């Protein structure tokens, strides 16, 4: 039989909600507030523990860090909305993309940064130069390497060399 409570229902101690099957549900037409302040440090701790998935039809606000234990799939844009936001990848943050408020820095770990594309690629700027710079100790150099053939490295406009230039092979 149903139990109807016309006013507040206060329960001291544990309360169990069970149904005739595993499909028992709690339906609320107002705000459901959980006042316990137990912090979460894993997927099995915290003030609210849910065994199944969680879905919402509107926004989800998280007041502090969001920790995801497995893959995170985002259906549309990912916005990092603060100046100095950092996107880090890898266990030791081997690759970071940092926003400074006016520009961005990409930093790679000891193995360097390899950008590979299946087709022709363009790096461009609408203002200023594009600079390739090596700051390695010792024999620092910038290497341009193209496919074999007469146009393996093609300079469409002018080339300015400041300092020594070493050319090997045919020009």
Kindly estimate the percentage of residues that lie in beta strands according to DSSP. Answer: 5-15%
Give the biggest sheet: 3 strands, antiparallel
Given helix and strand content, the structural type is little secondary structure
Question: Low-confidence parts lasting 5 or more residues at pLDDT below 50?
Answer: none
Count of alpha/pi helices: 0
Query: SSE string, helix = H, strand = E?
Result: EEE
Q: Shape from CA axes?
A: elongated
How far is it from the N-terminal to the C-terminal residue, by CA? 93 Å
Using only C-alpha atoms, the radius of gyration works out to 29 Å
The pLDDT mean sits at 81
Strand count? 3
> Fraction of residues in helices?
under 10%
Strand order of the largest sheet: 1-2-3
How would you summarize the topology of this molecule?
Elements (H helix, E strand, L loop, with lengths): L85 E4 L5 E5 L4 E5 L63
Antiparallel strand pairs: 1-2, 2-3
Structural write-up:
This protein has 171 residues and is low in regular secondary structure. It has strands at residues 86-89, 95-99, 104-108. The termini are far apart.
Quick recap:
By secondary structure, the protein is low in regular secondary structure. Helices cover 0% and strands 8% of the residues.
Which characteristics define this entry?
171 residues; little secondary structure; 3 strands; three-stranded antiparallel beta sheet
